[in-house]
Every structure is written in C-alpha cells, then in structure tokens.
Amino acid sequence: MRSRLQWARVIGKLTEAHPNAQASWAEARTAIKAADGRRASQLYARYPIDDLQPQLGLVPIGMNPKTRLWEFYHLRSAWDPNSEMLPKHLPVPSHGAGSSSEVTDHPGILFVLVPGGRFAMGRNAEDSLEISDLAGKQPTVTELKHLTRWYKNEVGVHEIGLEPFFLARHELTTGQYRRIVGSTNPVRKSSRESDTQHPRLPIHGLTFLETTRLLDVHGLVLPTEAQWEHACRAGHRRHWSTGDRLADLRGHANLFDAKAQEQYPPPSGFHPSLWSDGSPGRSRVGALTTNDFGFFDMHGNLAEWCLDRFGDYRLPTTPGTGERRSKSERRVVRGGSFLDIPMAARTTARASRPADFRSHTLGLRPSRKLMR
C-alpha cells in the first residue's frame, strides 16, 4: 500500500517531464501530427492524432529510426518498489546514435504507438500455401485435415478500421511481472529449461483471467485479435510478417526446431532439416529481429492471448478496436510458440483456449488505449 501511494504521488509529474526522458510530449505531439516521414511515419496521417496528450505513466523515447514509429516507455514496469531507486531516477532508454533501432537493454515495457486506419484482415478462400515447399513432402491425410481446419477459421477477408493504439514491442517478461506483481513465474520450473527465471525471458503460464486482472490494475489491456494481426502484418499481406517463404523467418522466429527435438516430441509436420533457430524453449525477448513495425516474436517464442472471444469472421466487430462480438467461452490465441511449426504461426493462423487455460507455451503482449 505504501508503494502504491508513493507511486500515485509522483507519476503525474514524471509523466509530464521525467528527468531522464529522451524526448518531450511537445516534441511527440508536433512530430506525430506532422506525419511527414521525417519526424514521424506518414502512416500516422491515415488516422490523424492532432493533439497528442501526455499518457499517464508513459514517457516518450522518440521515433524509431528504422520504422519511423514513435515509442514510449512504461515507467511502472521498470520500477521495483523493493529497491532503493526512486521513480525519478529511473533510466529511460534511447534508440542510440545513427540508425540504431534496438532498445533491448531495459527493464520496463516499450510501447509502440501503432498507426490507425483500415486494413484487410483474414485470408481469402483461394489463397493456399505450398505445403510441399514447407514440409519437404506432401501432407498425409491426417495432416491435410488438420490444416484444412486451420484454414477454415481464417477465411473471410474483411476490412477493419482501427484507431491508433499502443502495443508492447516485446512479450511481457518475468522481470516486468515481478516488478508490477511482486511475485515469480506462476508456472513451476520445468526440468527442460535451465534458465527459467532470467528477467528477459517472457512470462508464461498465466490464464486469460489472471492476465486481464493483472493488466487492468495498471491501465493496460490485451490487444484485440484485429490489433494483433494489424501489428503483425506491419502493412503487408504475406504468410508471415517477414515474407512468404520459410527462409524469411530465419532470425525472426523461435519455432520448433532440431534443438527443441532434443527435449520435446516433434509436432505433426515438423522436418528438422528445414528449420533451426537454435533455441529449445523460450528465448529472451529482443534476441531475434523485428518485423517492419518494430515488434519482436510475433511468430513463435510464446503464443499470445488476445482480448476477443473466439468467433467466426462473419460476426460484427467493435468500431475502433475491432473486437469480435462473439458469445463463445473460448478466447483467441495468436502467434504460435516455440513448440509450433511455422504453419501454426502464420500471420492469419488462429487458435483458441478456455479462459482458465494455462500453459508453459502461452504468454501475453500488453496493449494500451490511446487516451485523447
């Protein structure tokens, strides 16, 4: 309770002007409104943000020199109430000199301000993947039935209009979880993982209900399925955000590979000669390469909860967020995990789980509404 009061007293002032801030809110407001491609991405012009106000608890980092999107630092996930460091002394990361865009040496959540606008969600019925190119052989009858079930859930390209929103560059880490909750990983240590509690490993094992309660306390939410796919696509219509070929995933995705086969039974359709990322389980966030919006691990590492109830694409959506209006008791899961083959981690691939489901392959990526 004492730490909450301490935080409440200082957070407003630190949001407006943190001593270690890399950019001011006035700079962010001017750049994003201009959306001139020099100070901020022209994508922001699709859904203009004319008067960006300070967002409580966030500090501007600046424009990512690679993506041209603005990024912001979440102070509460960086501050440890049990440490002697005061919130005003927290270091705020920078993008570095020149064209560097990596900001991985940090304890707190890094949010990308994702441009709004309309995008085409889902997959056309006539679209198909060359299964033999991915697996090295024609699928068995059982595999083909399984793939057909995946595809059916994805069919129905439809336009979704999204307002701008914040989405974390990385999956929530064990270090961030400890700081904001004061607890360790809810899943018991696995004998298959030797480094289960490193602060930059993504947190796993939270149910949907636990996840939403955790985020709500700190003014955060899960992304909707539409927001997740928009961020994953990063302006492209491809099988994966990195391209249409299996080779395009190399260096970007932690999926089931020959190394994982040493510890886990291979999933259906896995062929070790075609895939190797060197990681048998979870990998630390920031270890691989981003997509064109600056997001890490949109394919693989951990699968990620989304806000929506699972539903057919013919169901209506909520304007601005794209949340699917479904009565299902199951919740959407996206992105695939380190135990999945590339087919299960495509941009359009959908899965669902009960709200009380927990797994060592399932995590989360925080989101936040843009307050106007």
Structural features, described:
The relative contact order is 0.15. It contains 8 helices and 11 strands. 20% of the residues lie in helices and 14% in strands. It starts with a helix and ends with a strand. A 5-stranded antiparallel β-sheet has the order 1-2-3-6-11. The protein has a 4-stranded mixed β-sheet with strand order 9-8-7-10. The protein is of the alpha+beta class and 372 residues long.
Number of strands: 11
Sheet-strand content, in percent, reads: 5-15%
Order of helices and strands: HHEEEEHHEEHHHHEEEEE
Strand-pairing-aware structural class: alpha+beta
Cα shape: globular
| Helix run count | 8
Distance between the termini: 30 Å
Mean pLDDT: 88
| Structural Rg | 20 Å
The low-confidence runs, each spanning 5 or more residues with pLDDT under 50, are none
Percent helix range = 10-25%
| Major beta sheet, strand line-up | 1-2-3-6-11
Strand count, sense and closure of the main sheet? 5 strands, antiparallel
